[in-house]
Hints:
By secondary structure, the protein is mostly helical. It has ten helices and three strands, in the order E-E-E-H-H-H-H-H-H-H-H-H-H. The chain has helices spanning about 40-50, 55-75, 75-90, 90-95, 100-130, 135-165, 180-210, 220-230, 235-250, 255-300, and strands at about 15-20, 20-25, 30-35. A three-stranded antiparallel sheet has the order 1-2-3. Helix 1 (about 40-50) crosses helix 10 (about 255-300) and helix 2 packs across helix 5 (about 100-130). The protein starts with 16 loop residues before the first strand and ends with a helix.
Amino acid sequence: xxxxxxxxxxxxxxxxxxxxxxxxxxxxxxxxxxxxxxxxxxxxxxxxxxxxxxxxxxxxxxxxxxxxxxxxxxxxxxxxxxxxxxxxxxxxxxxxxxxxxxxxxxxxxxxxxxxxxxxxxxxxxxxxxxxxxxxxxxxxxxxxxxxxxxxxxxxxxxxxxxxxxxxxxxxxxxxxxxxxxxxxxxxxxxxxxxxxxxxxxxxxxxxxxxxxxxxxxxxxxxxxxxxxxxxxxxxxxxxxxxxxxxxxxxxxxxxxxxxxxxxxxxxxxxxxxxxxxxxxxxxxxxxxxxxxxxxxxxxxxxxxx
Length: 305
């Protein structure tokens, strides 16, 4: 998510130079903004992007595994969540040592590390070139969205195979090849989420700030938009998620059977994905923004930039 985006539609602010590479917004809640892209700014953007999802990756892994496990093995999403979350909470060390869960967590970390790092680099380019709002939106979606969608498709294909190996019985234990239609459903699912995270969330944050500017800062308004918007879109994106998974599990399903299969786990899966997106895109994105800003402030204080 681009730093300083809320300030783009506000009156011009004084921007005293604090470093050759940075400029600072003087309004309360403002972020340091990159004035010139360099190897050092790219290094900061990548490092903070890689660090941000470490906290939330295990939670995402538990939710993703539970939903895919339910579709592939005809089990309950709720029961899978309960079992897997209990294992994470009660036995975190064993969870970290388990080869299967390390792979699941690593795959989820890969997706959001790539997403945040790409978004951070795009943000620095936008800030340095002072791009208008319409161009910055396109660039943010192209950078963060492309990274997220591409890496998520890789993650889902690998996850389906690993989960059927771990939890399946009989013929289902054979690794499944994810068909193109399922990948298309995953593409739409992730595209909707990225639009919510990188475009719609900004607009929600602006509206919150304009409506409640006397009570909340620009930073708080952006955080609200980042948290609420991706979660609110999950009732729509879950349809594509379940459609893709069910088609991968059984490509001979009729339209009626597919609809029924989606209905069977829709509400539990929607709730689970809301719980997943909140830390992944909401909390994780806010951690990324705050960590990036804090790192730039530290680099400025120590004159590294």
